[in-house]
Amino acid sequence: MYVSVRGIPRGTRPTTRVPRVVVVLGVVSLITDVSTEMVTAVLPLFATLALGLTPLAYGMLDGLYQGATVVVRLLGGFFADRLRRPKAVAGAGYALGAASKLMLLPVAGAGALSAAIGVDRAGKGLRTAPRDLLIATAAPPDRLGRSFGVHRALDATGALLGPVVAFGLLALAPGDFDMIFMVSFCAAVLGLLLFLHHVPEHRGARHGGTDAGRPVSVRDVAALLRIGGFRRLLCAAALLSAATIGDGFLYLVLLDNDAVTTRWFPLLFVCTSLVYLALAVPLGRISDRYGRTRVFTTGYGLLLCAYLTAILTGGPAGAALSLVFLGSYYAATDGVLPAAAAPLLPAGLTATGISVVQAAVAGGRALGAVVFGAVWTAAEGDAAVWTFAIALTAALIAAIPLITRARDHRTETR
To answer: Which helix H or strand E contains 46, and what residues bound it?
Structure first.
């Protein structure tokens, strides 16, 4: 991938290729996301139709889906920095994700389903920060947004293909969820093998501890909160995420409003991923040029548009527009947030700092899922969406002054 660079003499061909390890990690994420999104695409139907869960029960399940990663994200980032072996920590996370797919086969109730989801989310939480550290250490500082964008685009390709595979399998064998879970397991194992054999362990100076030869301690982690720009970014991200509706809930609202039918439900995930795939790299490049925090807050404005479109418009056209806004939101936030956080962090605490931000986002989303499920159970889907649209508007008003003050430069180790 080559792009033009200003200020380079004519006749010189600068190399701005995304590092190979970023592409390999993107392919690993692609395969892993095929596995994960096959399950995610059918999970709302499996939980509400096959298992008969109420909206409140599904909200608590979705909250577990988000919240199970909070502590494990922190542990993943901390041990990646402390042990100086991010590949080993991430590999354990990929292995847990594969094991969780087998756990889905005997599921017959909410308890067993919650356990399988908890293991899957724990695996995701464990691998995310070490993987992002491998990306951040491989990419030049002025191309962080682009590198994360390329990785997220490949990740989104997997998120696009997963629901398509699930849709095809359900078309061949309606109601056979076990077949989906087994195919998902095989894909997860393939991604794990690719990661183990083709991603090198990074032992460079950028995560060698806060001082030469000294491992990372809990005190070092606590010191991150004294970094002004990082603290403001963390608070803004947590506040905005708490006003976020889970994708499955938004899709169920569209289903409840007859904007889509049950048959086409898995393809809603495909449409969202397609938009994400198309915009992840362009928005990553825009964030490098015009400011990552600006693009990040714009993403939540797009999410607000997705909410309003879902309840104010009807039919397939309204559903499609809502999915465009939703996919644009992910493209503007998912890879941009770690790219914004990395330059604010000391070299030896990059993985830990990224994991702290991601854990705050996961915790906010978990809280939002439970509250949304409770509001829907007490009222109805549209009323719950209106409630969260108002909450997100208030969160944006509060977060923008915080996040725009976060300085986009690397803080030296203290």
So the answer is: none
CATH number at residue 251: 1.20.1250.20
Number of domains forming the structure of the chain: 1
Rounded Cα distance, 166 and 14, in Å: 43
User: What DSSP character marks residue 3?
Assistant: -
* Residues ≥6 apart with Cβ < 8 Å to 314: 257, 258, 259
Q: What is the token pair recorded at 138?
A: 């491989």
103 found inside a domain: yes
Please count the CA atoms within 13 angstroms of the CA of 343 that sit on its side-chain side.
Answer: 19
Position of tokens 């608070």?
235
Evaluate whether 3 touches 16 at the Cβ level (below 8 Å).
yes
In this prediction, residues 241-255 reach a mean pLDDT of 88
Q: Which residue has the tokens 């550290």?
A: 133
Are the C-beta atoms of 310 and 272 separated by less than 8 Å? no
56 within domain boundaries: yes
Q: Please say if the pLDDT value at position 14 is more than 50.
A: no
Where are any strands of DSSP class E within 150-300?
none
Q: Which domain holds residue 37?
A: 20-199+214-403
CB distance 253 to 310 below 8 Å: yes
Residues 6+ apart with CB under 8 A from 101: 35, 39, 120, 181, 182, 184, 185, 188
Determine how many CB atoms are found less than 10 A away from the CB of residue 249. 24
pTM of the model: 0.72
- Beta-bridge partners for 214: 211
Model pLDDT, residue 212: 44
176 is a domain residue: yes
- What residue type is assigned to position 278 of the chain? A
Buried b (16+ CB within 10 A) or exposed e, 49-79: eebebebbbbbbbbbbbbbbbbebbbbbbbb
Check if the beta carbon of residue 354 is closer than 8 Å to that of residue 335. Answer: no
Cβ contact 277:163 at 8 Å: no
Strand partners, 211: 214
